[in-house]
Design brief:
By secondary structure, this protein is mostly beta strands. Helices cover 7% and strands 38% of the residues.
C-alpha cells in the first residue's frame, strides 16, 4: 500500500484535505491484486470512479468540489483484478502544472470576472461510457474529456462530431436501447438551459434552448423510453451577486415550486410540458419510466436544502453546510394527457448517490443501490450500502465496519441474468487509517457482506460518481487501442 499524500496538505486546516479525503500524489498501476475471499469468475468488466484529487495547494478556501479530477478503475476478469488511476488532463490542470502552482480560484471564490469569472473546470464529478469512450464531466457544466476505458489513456475533448458549441452537464444519460447520449448545459445568461441529444456514434443530433425564468442549478436529468425530464428547483444562485462580489451564493426560495419539464426525446422548445411540485431540491434521481399516460420518477429529495452555516466553522461554514445532505427516497408522477401530478415519500432514511441497473435506464426498475449518510455528519461519509425495492419502498442495508467508508456502488449483471438483481454490486472502500479495497457484493443479498475484498495498491480518496462498464466494452477498446 502506497502512502503518497502530498506534503503540502500537512499545513492545510481543511477536513476535505485530510484523512479519507486527502489527495494522492501519483498515478498508480498494478496487476494481480491480492484478494480476500473469492472473486466470481463471471464478474467481467471495470468499476470506474471519478473524484477530486488536488495536485497543488489551493490559493483560497478549498471546497471538496475543487480538486482536480482523477479516475480510478478496478478491472475484473477470470477471477483476477487489476487497478489503474489517472488524472483527467484538463486545460486548467495543464495551466497549473506549467505554473507549478494552483492558478484558479475555488468555487467559493472570490471569482474575478476579468480573468476567472467561472471556477476551474476539473472534470472531477461524473464518468459515463459512450461511443467506446469514457467521458469525465464536471458538475458546473464543462468540457467532456475522453479516456480509453481499458487504459485510461486521454483521448482529447469530445466535440460531438465537431458540432458541440456548449459545455455539458455532469449527468448525461445513455439510453441503453438507442445508444443516445442525452444531456443539458446551464448558463448565467439566456438561454439559461440548452438540451441536446447525441447519436450512438457520438455525433450531435439535436439541440434546443429551454425556456427558464432565470439562471438555475439542476444537477441531473432523467430519461424514459420516449421522453426526457428536465429539472428546475427553487435552489439557485444570483448571477448578479457573482458579477458584483465574486461569490456564488446559493439560496433556497421556499415560496417557489419544484418544476419538472417533460420533453419528447428530440422535441423542440415549445414541446416542454411543465409540472409543479413541493419546493425542494434533488441532486440525483434514480430512474423514470412510462406507464400509459403517466411518467413515474424516483429520486433522492431534499425538502429543505437551506445551507445552515455554523459560526464556529468560519470560512468553511458555507461548504460544510451545503454538504450536509438531508435527502430521502421520493416519487413523482406526471400524467402527460391530463396534466395531473402527485408525489409520495417512499422512505425517511437519509440516502443519496443512487444507482439502479443503468442498463435499464428509462424502463421500470425494481431495485436501486444507495449510500446511507448519518444526518449529524461533519463531513460527507458513506456509512452503509442500502438496497431499495421500489415496488413497496422497503430496503435492506449493510453497515460498513468501523473505520470503512464507501463509494457510489453500481450494479454489474451476470451474463444471461434473468432477475433484475442477479449480479453484483461493486464499490471502492477507504479506511480512515489510509488503505483502500474494492468490495464485491452479491446484489441479491447485500446483508451478508462482501463476497470478495480486493486490496488496492494505494489509498483512494473519497470521491463522487462511479460506473460499471461491462467487459465486452472494455476489452474491445483494449484490442483497438
Amino acid at each position: 500500500m502506497q502512502h503518497d499524500t502530498p506534503r503540502w496538505t500537512r499545513d492545510v486546516d481543511n477536513p476535505y484535505l485530510r484523512g479519507i479525503y486527502a489527495p494522492t500524489a501519483n498515478e498508480i498501476e498494478a496487476r494481480a491484486l491480492e484478494v480476500k475471499g473469492e472473486l466470481p469468475l463471471d464478474l467481467c468488466g471495470a468499476y470506474v470512479r471519478n473524484g477530486p484529487n488536488a495536485m497543488f495547494a489551493p490559493p483560497n478556501a478549498y471546497h471538496w468540489f475543487d480538486g482536480d479530477g482523477m479516475i480510478h478503475a478496478v478491472y475484473f476478469r477470470d477471477g483476477e483484478a487489476s487497478y489503474r488511476s489517472r488524472w483527467v488532463p484538463t486545460e486548467a490542470l495543464a495551466a497549473d502544472r506549467a505554473a507549478g502552482a494552483a492558478t484558479w480560484p475555488g468555487i467559493m471564490g472570490p471569482l474575478d470576472s476579468a480573468h476567472h469569472f467561472v471556477a476551474k473546470d476539473t472534470a472531477n464529478t461524473d464518468v459515463v461510457w459512450h461511443h467506446g469512450k469514457l467521458l469525465a464531466l464536471w458538475y458546473l457544466c464543462g468540457e467532456p474529456h475522453q479516456l480509453n476505458p481499458a487504459t485510461l489513456k486521454p483521448e482529447g475533448v469530445d466535440t460531438f462530431g465537431g458540432l458541440r458549441n456548449t459545455s455539458v452537464s455532469a449527468h448525461p444519460k445513455v439510453d441503453p436501447r438507442t445508444g443516445e447520449l442525452v444531456w443539458f448545459t446551464l448558463s448565467d445568461f439566456e438561454p439559461y438551459m440548452i438540451y441536446g441529444v447525441c447519436d450512438r456514434d457520438g455525433t450531435l443530433a439535436h439541440q434546443v434552448p429551454i425556456d427558464l425564468p432565470g439562471a438555475r442549478a439542476p444537477h441531473d436529468l432523467t430519461i424514459t423510453e420516449r421522453y426526457t425530464i428536465l429539472h428546475d428547483f427553487p435552489f439557485f444562485h444570483d448571477p448578479d451577486v457573482v458579477r458584483k462580489h465574486g461569490y456564488r451564493v446559493v439560496r433556497f426560495h421556499r415560496d417557489m415550486p419544484t418544476r419538472f419539464g417533460v420533453i419528447p426525446r428530440r422535441g423542440g422548445t415549445t414541446d416542454v410540458k411543465w409540472f409543479e411540485f413541493a419546493p425542494g431540491y434533488v441532486l440525483h434521481m434514480v430512474n423514470a419510466w412510462e406507464e400509459g399516460d403517466w411518467i413515474t420518477m424516483d429520486g433522492c429529495f431534499e425538502p429543505d436544502p437551506t445551507i445552515i452555516r455554523r459560526p464556529e466553522e468560519g470560512e468553511l461554514g458555507s461548504m460544510l453546510g451545503n454538504l450536509r445532505v438531508r435527502a430521502h427516497l421520493h416519487r413523482w408522477r406526471m400524467n402527460l394527457r391530463t396534466g395531473e401530478c402527485s408525489e409520495t415519500q417512499l422512505d425517511d432514511l437519509n440516502v443519496e448517490f443512487p444507482l439502479p441497473d443503468t442498463e435499464r435506464y428509462g424502463e421500470e426498475t425494481r431495485f436501486s443501490y444507495l449510500q446511507y449518510l448519518p444526518e449529524d455528519m461533519y463531513t460527507v461519509e458513506f456509512r452503509a450500502l442500502v438496497k431499495y425495492d421500489h415496488r413497496d419502498g422497503s430496503c435492506v442495508r449493510y453497515d460498513y465496519p468501523d473505520g470503512w467508508f464507501g463509494s457510489e456502488s453500481p450494479f454489474a449483471a451476470k451474463p444471461g441474468a434473468r432477475r433484475e438483481d442477479d449480479g453484483y454490486v461493486v464499490s471502492i472502500m477507504t479506511h480512515r487509517e489510509g488503505r483502500s479495497e474494492a468490495w464485491v457484493f452479491a446484489a441479491s443479498d447485500i446483508r451478508r457482506g462482501p463476497l470478495a475484498r480486493v486490496k488496492l495498491p494505494a489509498r483512494v480518496p473519497a470521491g463522487f460518481h462511479a460506473k460499471w462498464i461491462p467487459g465486452d466494452r472494455v476489452w474491445d477498446e483494449e484490442i483497438r487501442g
